[in-house]
Amino acid sequence: MRIDVLTLFPEMFTNVFGSSILKQAQTSGAVSYQVVNFRDYADNKHKKVDDYPYGGGAGMVLRAQPFFDAVDDLVKEGQVKPRVVMLCPQGERYTQKKAEEFSKEQHLILLCGHYEGYDERVREYLVTDEVSIGDYVLTGGELGAMVIADSVTRLLPGVLGNEQSAITDSFSTGFLEHPHYTRPADFRGMKVPDILLSGHHKNIEDWRQKEALRRTWERRPDLLEEKPLSDKELKWIDEFTRKN
């Protein structure tokens, strides 16, 4: 996969893309990152990328020209058409499902906005997706772009050491993830559940499914509203309700 980022602050990405799993993914060839300063594409003497809004009003608006020219330069004739993703508070809320969808693409271009926003023609004629990482406003789209790059990269084949890790993540299954424990079995009197020490794989798997459902029911019941549940899961929810 190829991930390009258009930003006014490319230095913000140096440590993120050069560390941990993202660095390993790039070294292995699973992904390539390119961070581009779209100011370099400004068509005026002073490399100005923003201007006053038509009709008046506070703040400045990012001009369309640098974005269009930058994307034209990044996408050569004959290449697969990329998903061009605008980081924007007005976009759809980013989810694990969206990350999984993006991970199947060959090429993503992430646009990081600033000021009062983008010239509307960028949204109408250039962008394929508008995404927000939450219901709040940041100073720019860079942090959102980092979130998307990280969440997508870890889903690529061969990036995580254990391929099951991404499959069983919170949200990938529709539930929050079950509790985890490691050694020692008894730490300051706080003990690991006996079932995890039993060696009975079927019972352990049932326990994990039940605890994942319990955690979701307690913390994020909204995730269960549209999810089809089995008879066994419905029975567990009835048990949780009665005990509660």
Automatic annotation (TrEMBL):
Signal peptide: none annotated. Its EC number is 2.1.1.228. One of its GO terms (molecular function) is tRNA (guanine(37)-N1)-methyltransferase activity. GO terms for cellular component: cytosol. GO terms for biological process: tRNA N1-guanine methylation. Gene3D superfamilies: 3.40.1280.10, tRNA(m1g37)methyltransferase, domain 2. It is found in: Cytoplasm. Homodimer. Specifically methylates guanosine-37 in various tRNAs. This is tRNA (guanine-N(1)-)-methyltransferase. It comes from Halalkalibacter wakoensis JCM 9140.
